[in-house]
From TrEMBL:
UniProt superkingdom: Eukaryota
Cofactor binding note: Binds 1 Mg(2+) ion per subunit.
GO molecular-function terms, A-Z: catechol O-methyltransferase activity; magnesium ion binding
Pfam families (UniProt xref): Methyltransf_3
Residues engaged in binding S-adenosyl-L-methionine: 61, 91, 109, 160
Annotated positions binding substrate: 163, 189, 218
Coiled coil: none
Organism expressing this protein natively: Dicaeum eximium
Protein name: catechol O-methyltransferase
EC number in record: 2.1.1.6
Length: 233
């Protein structure tokens, strides 16, 4: 899996970027703009999956793990949700299509190029009223959530950014009193590339009840998993 990733992510992508004078993320967006139905989030999600399974691999949560994400969001039925790591906006669109009326998703992206693509993706999907894209590092934005973005507590958190940030950001969410009894955290890629210190932390903590969902790396056969951690207070 690692060799395939290196080939897809680094070598092939760099060559294609050079030839086409645009990023892979821009190509994903263009494919969606040309092939998906405007204002239809399901169509946008399916079109991204199609591109990434057939043309160029990308680090979206993908369809297989996407179903685990869907089920977890539906069970949590959040009024306020947080996503760490927007990337191209795939999971933001996927989550927002399941939100009840009046609910909102705050999604955090550190990379300005990804954020620019995600913003267009979210608008094209027609979910911009439910999704607020916050640009910057998670460790700076999390402490601002209460005052600046009027978040009392978070009902659902999706961790899908830098794997070494999972643990410190989970601790930060607790320190900032953003979790309530029953808040649901769902972490992607806990096997590949892996987030061992996060798993170790939530599984040993008396404040979390954990469930592991074995799956596969997006658009590949490599083993991966998602970890659900429910905050017990």
């Amino acid at each position: 899996a690692t060799a395939a990733l290196v080939w897809n992510e680094i070598i092939r992508e760099k060559v294609t970027n050079f030839i086409m004078n645009q990023s892979k993320e821009q190509r994903i967006l263009n494919f969606v703009l040309q092939n998906a139905v405007r204002g239809d989030p399901c169509s946008v999600v399916d079109t991204i999956d199609k591109y990434c399974s057939q043309k160029e691999w990308a680090m979206n949560v993908g369809d297989e793990k996407g179903k685990i994400l869907d089920k977890t969001v539906e069970e949590a039925n959040p009024s306020v949700a947080l996503e760490l790591g927007t990337y191209c906006g795939y999971s933001a669109v996927r989550i927002s299509r399941l939100l009840k009326a009046g609910a909102r998703l705050l999604t955090v992206e550190f990379n300005p190029e990804f954020a620019a693509v995600a913003k267009q993706m979210i608008e094209f999907a027609g979910v911009q009223d439910k999704v607020k894209l916050l640009e910057g590092p998670s460790e700076e934005i999390i402490p601002q959530l209460k005052k600046k973005y009027e978040v009392d507590t978070l009902d659902f958190v999706f961790l899908d950014h830098w794997k070494d940030r999972y643990r410190p950001d989970t601790i930060l969410l607790q320190e900032c009193n953003l979790l309530r009894k029953g808040s649901v955290l769902l972490a992607d890629n806990v096997i590949f590339p892996g987030a061992p210190d996060f798993l170790n932390y939530v599984r040993k903590s008396p404040h979390f009840q954990c469930t592991n969902y074995p799956s596969h790396l997006e658009y590949m056969q490599a083993e991966d998993a998602m970890e659900k951690a429910v905050f017990l207070g």
